[in-house]
């Protein structure tokens, strides 16, 4: 919708300096010729999760598209201002403690209209002693299969002191990973694990690229 584009554009323009000073993001690419910071057509962008403010990082990482972010119910319980902000940004509420899966249909509807949806498939911020990233939820793969949508994986190192490092991966067509000999449940589990592994591989590639750049 045009209203979301206008609001997102206003926020990006007015908040650019604050974003640049806070994140100072240094962006790497798995293959920039295949996927840079411009997104063509519909897409699901996924990323590992460090903090609530990760959404702001993703907004500016892909500045030319409106990212409709799936947001946990807890943020809607903060205060009236936060709820209002999430609504005008076009966020999709996900109630993790109910059996309400309407967020998946809302996500699919946006994708059918050629939109872009941001998902943090870990579904929560990992605790300090937990292995990162956490296991991914299968809903992102289920939606991608249903809507025939590419998934753009991203890894960010979560740094808040100094420059944040981010790497954008090549789009993934999860349909290519689907095995017709297996059940849908098995496929969802296997493909979701592969998707998580893809983000882990991006983490390793980010470290390699940064080391190579530092040697120059």
User: Helix/strand-derived class?
Assistant: alpha/beta
Largest sheet: 7 strands, mixed
In the predicted model, the low-confidence regions spanning at least 5 consecutive residues are none
Radius of gyration: 17 Å
What's the quaternary structure here? Answer: single chain
The whole-number mean of residue pLDDT values reads 92
How much of the residues is beta strand, in percent? 5-15%
What's the order of the H and E elements?
A: HHEEHEHHEHEHEEH
Quickly describe the structure:
By secondary structure, the protein is α/β, with parallel strands linked by helices. The chain is built from eight helices and seven strands; from the N terminus they run ααββαβααβαβαββα. The longest helix has 32 residues, at 184-215.
Mind explaining what this structure looks like?
The protein is an alpha/beta fold and 216 residues long. Helix content is 43%, strand content 15%. The chain has helices at 2-14, 16-22, 54-61, 73-76, 80-88, 102-112, 139-147, 184-215; strands spanning 26-29, 43-47, 67-72, 92-94, 116-119, 151-156, 165-168. Strands 1-7-6-2-5-3-4 form a 7-stranded mixed beta sheet, sandwiched between helices. A hairpin with an 8-residue loop joins strand 6 (151-156) and strand 7. The protein starts with a helix and ends with a helix. The model has no long low-confidence stretch (mean pLDDT 92).
Topology:
Elements: H1 2-14, H2 16-22, E1 26-29, E2 43-47, H3 54-61, E3 67-72, H4 73-76, H5 80-88, E4 92-94, H6 102-112, E5 116-119, H7 139-147, E6 151-156, E7 165-168, H8 184-215
Parallel strand pairs: 1-7, 2-5, 2-6, 3-4, 3-5
Antiparallel strand pairs: 6-7
